[in-house]
Amino acid sequence: MNFKRVPRILDPQELMDYAFSRASREARRCSAGRGLRGIKSREERRIVIAGSSVRRYLNRILARIPDLEKLSTFYRELIDVTADLEQFKHSLRSLRWLVGKLERMEREYVSRVRRAGSEEEVYRCRREFYGRVASLLRKIEPELEFLRDARERLKNLPTVEDTFTVVIAGAPNVGKSSLLRRLTGAEPRVESYPFTTRQLLLGYMEHRHMKIQVVDTPGLLDRSFEEMRPEERQSILALRHLAGIVLFVFDATESCGYPLEEQLRIYRAVRQNFGAQVVPVINKADLLQERHLRRLRSREPFHRALVCSAKTGEGMEELIRAISEAAQNK
Ligand SMILES: Nc1nc2c(ncn2[C@@H]2O[C@H](COP(=O)(O)OP(=O)(O)OP(=O)(O)O)[C@@H](O)[C@H]2O)c(=O)[nH]1
Ligand SMILES: [Mg+2]
């Protein structure tokens, strides 16, 4: 699954500039002589080169876009929340339609040029062909625009591996990315404000010769799937499709900006909606007073929570032990 190989999506004007100037250049190089025959031969070349340049470019896009039908449910849904799968398919169908249409038009206009009885008619045919190419490209402008935007978003999607996976989830700003960094050495952006992580991020750890994938997710709020931003929906898809175990991170100091009660509501929703084992993790232990921690311990689910600090590294052994036990039992 890789959208990075998809070429930059040109707009109609850029594509026309590219195709028509290439056609003029190539036609000038053609030494077909003077007179009607020479003109016919040059203009025919312009038609063929302009048409085939556009077709080749569109075919390159089509060939490099991953085959949507062969993708896993996770990726299809990920594309859907990132870029709208149906619109995506529709845009690709439009491109395919245009390739076929251009091919037929090229043949039609080449034969009209060959049959033309005068220079004026030859030039008129070629101009008409260019005009129709231009109007067809303008017709699919919305689709090209959609694909350009979709490519930008999709090219950064991670390529997940089919191996035991830990999903780190929780409210915004609780230290999920800091934990990913601690556990795997990956270098996600960490900031002191919510919504720093805008998409799924991957890291890997090795335990007893086993490669374990760790997915850091955008912060979740207490709301339904319909109300979620695309970023949060990515988190839900990771929980639904990838998680072998979930580390649900709490910031009991509430310095993240989200009250503990709200974090608990998100935790309960995650536990209820997904099949994987959910381990509560109290992060930012370096900021927690012993008294506060003891009080927390008396309530569900904190009596069985792991306590750590992504900042100081405290508690990482226990976290790694819980992960590796879950991985062994898979
Ligand atoms: N004191 C302390 N600060 C921490 C700890 N873990 C994270 N932080 C800080 O908390 C802030 C948020 O950390 P992130 O790792 O970006 O949190 P996140 O959950 O990934 O945030 P989003 O991606 O926005 O959801 C940063 O300022 C971190 O330095 C910790 O264990 N102790
Ligand atoms: Mg983050």
Describe how the helices and strands are arranged:
Elements: H1 12-29, H2 35-64, H3 73-83, H4 85-115, H5 119-139, H6 141-154, E1 165-170, H7 176-184, E2 201-207, E3 210-216, H8 230-241, E4 245-251, H9 260-273, E5 277-283, H10 290-297, E6 306-307, H11 316-328
Parallel strand pairs: 1-3, 1-4, 4-5, 5-6
Antiparallel strand pairs: 2-3
Bound molecules: guanosine-5'-triphosphate and magnesium ion.
Structure in words:
The chain has 330 residues and is of the alpha/beta class. It has two domains: 12-154, Four Helix Bundle (Hemerythrin (Met), subunit A); 165-328, Rossmann fold (3-Layer(aba) Sandwich). Helices cover 55% and strands 11% of the residues. The protein contains eleven helices and six strands. A six-stranded mixed sheet has the order 2-3-1-4-5-6, with helices on both faces. Helix 1 packs antiparallel against helix 5 (119-139). The chain starts with 11 loop residues before the first helix and ends with a helix. The relative contact order is 0.10.
Broad structural category = alpha/beta
What is the CATH domain class of the largest domain? Alpha Beta
CATH superfamily of the largest domain: P-loop containing nucleotide triphosphate hydrolases
Distance between the termini: 26 Å
**What is the radius of gyration?**
28 Å
Give the helix tally.
11
Helicity, in percent?
Answer: 40-55%
**Nearest-integer average pLDDT:** 95
Q: How can the largest sheet be summarized?
A: 6 strands, mixed
And the CATH topology of the largest domain? Rossmann fold
Low-confidence stretches: none
Architecture per CATH nomenclature, i.e. the level-2 architecture of the largest domain:
3-Layer(aba) Sandwich
Note the beta-strand portion: 5-15%
